[in-house]
Here is the input.
Amino acid sequence: MLHAGWKWEKVETGESPPICENADMNLFGFHLTYDPDIEKLVLTYWNESEDMSDTWLWDGYTWSYECTHDASGHPNKDFGANQMFYDEVSKVLMDVRWQGCGDGYRNCGTLCRKDENSCWDCFLSFTPTFSTTYDAFRKRAVMANGSLRLILEWDGQQLHETQLNNYFDAEALVAYDEFSKQVIIRDRGYRTFEYDGVNLEEYEGLNEILEEWGMAYNPHLEGVVLSLIHGNTYVYKDHKWKMVPTVIGDLYQEYSWVRFSQMVYFPPTDQFLLLTIPLYDNDGCLAFYELKEYDRTHSRPFDKPLLTIRRIH
Here is the structure.
């Protein structure tokens, strides 16, 4: 009988963007998403020292520099989760950033789109949001500010505002579940919500006090995956979090804490990836990890991830 489990395994990417924790840089606003038009991952980050926002691409094997955007007035210095998405209506890459509201003490959200001429074009301001995901079923970006009980939705042409009856933490993680067609919200207060575009329903939470590596939909597991630093990995199915037998592996061995981490599924190579900038390791530079299934009987990873976990229920 095969005993299957999961393991985080480091991915070699060659020379990566010049992002290292021990470098003399003040970097913020790391956003990551998959662009189906070019079939590459897109990474943006803001360099506070130069007030510039750099964009890099990853094709599954190597990194390449794309462009630099003058970030004056649109610094992208946010404290939320990933806020970049691909708009399936307008067929363009979008990024949610922060900017000054003009009154000297408040921040506002600003919506930017990928532009061939200027790298990024920031064109619309609104109440700041902290987490963003894209609802592929309704074809709308869902941007959340739980502390204000507010959800903003971008339909490709304009914003729509939904005032919620319940609130959740401002730093909550959000991810679209392609299997259930719901937006899953993981509250830092350990509550879990599902949002369908109209209603926000609370379900069984996950009582874990550890910080998250990230949260994203994993087609291999057919659910939203949440992985905790120095903790367990879970998949959200049938309104509950279920633990996935996981060997933390390289992540636990090398890193004791991180300042940035995001998860994403990369279709061209069929990989579920974690991109992170670790602290307190040898170099503290950008690193990719892949969640792969392996045979726990012999503790030997398969060459390729398997496409189902029915055997480990």
In short: The helical segments are 250-254. Residues 1-16+210-313 form one domain.
